[in-house]
TrEMBL record:
Cellular component per GO, a single term: plasma membrane
Family matches, as Pfam families: 7tm_4 (PF13853)
Protein known as: Olfactory receptor 10K1
UniProt keywords, alphabetically: Cell membrane, G-protein coupled receptor, Glycoprotein, Membrane, Olfaction, Receptor, Sensory transduction, Transducer, Transmembrane, Transmembrane helix
UniProt topology in membrane: Multi-pass membrane protein
Organism encoding this protein: Ursus maritimus
One term of GO molecular function: olfactory receptor activity
Amino acid sequence: MEWGNESLVREFTFLGFSSLAGLQRLLFIAFLPLYLFTLGTNAIIISTIVLDRALHTPMYFFLAVLSCSETCYTFVIVPKMLVDLLAQKKTISFLGCAIQMFTFLFLGCSHSFLLAAMGYDRYVAICNPLRYTELMGHRVCVGLVAAACACGFTIAQIITSMVFHLPFRSSNQLHHYFCDIAPVLKVASHHSRLSQLVIFMIGVFVLVIPLLLILVSYIHIISAILKIPSSTGRYKAFSTCASHLIVVTVHYGCASFIYLRPKSSYSSSQDTLISVSYTILTPLFNPMIYSLRNKEFKSALRRVMGQTSYPIN
């Protein structure tokens, strides 16, 4: 694919933290351990799920895929951001910017559809427990993940192609710390209302459709939980969904704020702040929400560490 043959811009300059020039080294010191902790916890989650047969269930299969996706997602954005916090010249090539946008869109869109698949998994587990093994077999789980990735890939290809075939002749300064859609569109010399509308409608499809599917799933889940006679049973059933609900709220809340707003309300400073939350903080908290506070997972982790002769107290 040719990226913007008519463009005179050969590289972009990031200005995401330019207003905090005196604090950039401090931000590096703060963000680096958070990023390393995120990588470590996701590595623990993936390896534990792979090594412990008790976790070879659909729910933990989706969790392993989610952890892998988040690890790749942060790897696309955070290392470059950390380098730029210490660098005088905060630039990225035109092609590099296109690759970064495509990759994070692919992973982010896949993430949205994957959360919908996880909602369906919880629906089947609570509303059809006797047929759970049949309805959520290995082929079905792999098929759902493959469908989520295929949707993410297609959407990322469409948006990235539309954005980087626009002419870039004036400014190359991005008021952000990575190549997000709105900052790149803002420096394009010309973009039609049609392209803006198409990108907005794709954003609606990626965010609203999966969210509606999740809401429908949880309407049935709540209805089924309320029919459970014992309070202990209701609590246990709801606790299996609480982590998913928290992650869904954070993911769709941040993404909707950024991608479903009118262009007139665009604010680079607000977007930078929100982007930090879903590129650094959300991937940091998701492993703890899903697994490290989960008794079943912690028991499996002890077994795995015991097998490798590193017991956990």
